[in-house]
Write a structure and sequence with these properties.
This protein has 209 residues and is of the alpha+beta class. It has one domain. Helices cover 21% and strands 38% of the residues. It has three helices and eleven strands. The strands form two sheets. It has a seven-stranded antiparallel β-sheet, with helices on both faces.
């Protein structure tokens, strides 16, 4: 699947293409094992955020950005975008929903092109997790299109000028509810650190205690 850099031309009003526009902050991810499972630390040039995986078993999968969490395959990725709103200023709820829906439309079109179908069946709703806006997006995969994968479940939110995307491909006998619950469990741990980076050495020492 794509999960690529978000295209600037999706929203002429919100995205900017002028040369002097603020470039998206680049984040590097570091994974660390913990007694409770694992933690992912995303450090940018000015800001950072973390997500935790409370699990009995946690292993990276061969595919990039995929991990196994208690036997459930999960993808965690970022899609940066350009915005006229400085990263120090929070987007209002309405603007967040516009950005999230635009990402969904782009991703949906890409998926339909890859599957060579006119349209995919989807469910979309917005929810609040720890006072952050998340988009829940569920796609029914056309029969025979992706092997044993019958659905794709997404939880997507905005972290500074990034889309943080949680994705769970569903194979039988897994269920939509079970996969959504696992994604939500991870999303609940999201912590944003505006204007502050995580000291990786200190984090490692803390996890050893």
């Amino acid at each position: 699947m794509s999960i690529k850099y978000f295209i600037n031309s999706l929203l002429g009003l919100l995205f900017t293409t002028v040369a002097s526009a603020q470039q998206p902050e680049e984040f590097n991810v570091s994974w660390m094992k913990a007694k409770y499972g694992a933690i992912a630390i995303y450090n940018g040039s000015k800001n950072s955020f973390t997500i935790k995986f409370f699990a009995g078993t946690f292993e990276p999968a061969p595919q990039e950005n995929f991990v196994w969490v208690d036997g459930v395959l999960m993808q965690v990725s970022l899609a940066p975008f350009h915005t006229k709103t400085p990263t120090t200023q929070s987007l209002n709820i309405g603007s967040q929903k516009v950005f999230l829906n635009s990402w969904r439309e782009f991703e949906k079109k890409w998926l339909e092109d890859q599957l060579k179908v006119a349209s995919v069946t989807e469910k979309v709703e917005f929810t609040s997790i720890n006072n952050k806006v998340f988009m829940e997006w569920v796609i029914d995969m056309p029969p025979g299109s992706s092997g044993s994968i019958i659905k794709q479940v997404y939880l997507v939110t905005i972290c500074f000028d990034q889309m943080l995307i949680f994705n769970g491909p569903i194979q039988r006998p897994e269920t939509e509810t079970g996969t959504k619950n696992k994604l939500t469990q991870v999303a609940t741990t999201l912590e944003l650190n505006a204007g502050k980076l995580v000291d990786l050495d200190q984090m490692y020492r803390d996890l050893q205690k």
